[in-house]
Design a protein that fits this description.
Layout: H1 2-18, E1 20-29, E2 36-42, E3 48-53, E4 59-66, E5 70-77, E6 80-86, E7 91-97, E8 105-108, H2 111-158, H3 163-168, H4 178-192, H5 196-209, E9 221-224, E10 229-231, E11 239-245, H6 250-266, E12 271-277, H7 282-292, E13 297-300, H8 305-309, E14 317-321, E15 327-330, H9 334-345
Parallel strand pairs: 1-7, 11-12, 12-13
Antiparallel strand pairs: 1-4, 2-3, 2-5, 5-6, 7-8, 9-10, 9-13, 11-14, 14-15
């Protein structure tokens, strides 16, 4: 027991014996923080927390004691700090700009900190070089892809009645090149009408283009929670979000606060929401309405007539309709919906 006690005294004495001072001082321009800075020194498993007074002019000075070279973080606020490597006997000067502290700082008097900063600058340059190469690569890929798209379009236009064109047109995104699809469909139906392959393409294309952006949204006529018949067409002249949902759909319910925010902000400017429930249980729908208190039009598609018409295979499913009744966009939610409404209706 006595030997262990003597060992602890010796250990503590040796730590005190070899601990040496480090002078840390600095100047922070544009300082508008608290009256003290936080310094964390990582010389052991548990960091040492030190408070350093700072003047209103951003000047500070503190004499520290360290036994070994140690990592430290000098915090100017909870999210911004400068990494330091403290060594005994050093006189370290920190100059920083409070508004851009992470990149606008100069450290003098600390050999290891300066080495770290030099290393960090080199690594950042490597990262920048990698990003530049990645950008060049992506631009090259985009260029080749454009050539491929242009080639397919040219091929289809030159061979509009060949089944070979039918085989290659799938390369094209139908939402961006619907006119090429329609051109090929018309040409093939003129020459190959009755051919099962062409007829199948014609049917599938008609279905795909039924609700394309720019087409008129089919009318919906359903009863609201009071039993009143409400037609989608009655809202012509407004920007309308058709919202297919159900009480049991968690993502649908989670989106309601975002819809409330959008409705509150833009309803006075001509925005309306037309929510169509596809619940199997009408009472579940009514209960959800009482819980959510949705301040817009809510109707019930008991027979799934309109969810089928609109090809709703999953929910939430939304379509944004312009004042002219034409489809502007599909499945906009949250920030994306707000952004589109700001473009259409302003703030």
């Amino acid at each position: 027991m006595i030997q262990r006690f003597l060992f602890l005294i010796l250990l503590l004495g040796s730590s005190t014996l070899y601990a040496q001072e480090v002078n840390l001082q600095g100047k922070i321009t544009n300082y508008s923080g608290k009256d003290s800075l936080k310094l964390l020194i990582y010389s052991s498993n548990t960091p040492v927390d030190i408070s350093i007074p700072v003047s209103t002019q951003g000047e500070f000075s503190k004499t520290l004691t360290v036994a070994f070279a140690s990592y430290a973080k000098l915090f100017f606020n909870p999210n911004d700090f400068i990494l330091l490597i403290l060594s005994p006997k050093e006189k370290i000067t920190v100059t920083a700009n409070f508004t851009n502290m992470a990149s606008d700082n100069v450290i003098k008097g600390s050999k290891h900190t300066q080495l770290w900063n030099s290393n960090n600058a080199a690594l950042l340059q490597f990262s920048k070089n990698t990003q530049d190469l990645q950008s060049k690569y992506e631009r090259a890929i985009d260029s080749v892809e454009k050539q491929r798209i242009d080639y397919v379009i040219s091929f289809v236009k030159q061979n509009p009645t060949s089944l070979a064109s039918l085989a290659v047109i799938e390369v094209l995104d139908i939402s961006m090149h619907s006119h090429i699809y329609e051109f090929l469909d018309s040409s093939l139906m003129t020459v190959h009408k009755g051919n099962p392959i062409v007829e199948n393409f014609h049917t599938n294309l008609k279905q795909a283009l039924f609700l394309k952006e720019g087409s008129v949204a089919p009318d919906i006529v359903l009863l609201d929670e009071t039993g009143k018949q409400v037609a989608l067409s009655s809202l012509k002249g407004k920007v309308v979000l058709i919202d297919f949902w159900a009480s049991w759909c968690r993502p649908c319910r989670q989106e309601i606060p975002n819809l409330k925010q959008a409705h509150a902000r833009y309803s006075s400017r001509g925005f309306e929401i037309y929510s169509v429930s596809i619940d199997n249980d009408k009472n579940a729908w009514l209960q959800a309405l009482s819980q959510e208190n949705m301040p817009w039009i809510t109707v019930y598609d008991a027979q799934k007539t309109y969810s089928s018409l609109y090809n709703v295979t999953s929910i939430p499913n939304t379509l944004l309709i312009g004042k002219d009744g034409k489809i502007i966009s599909k499945n906009l939610r949250g920030a994306a919906l707000e952004e589109q409404l700001q473009i259409l209706l302003g703030m």
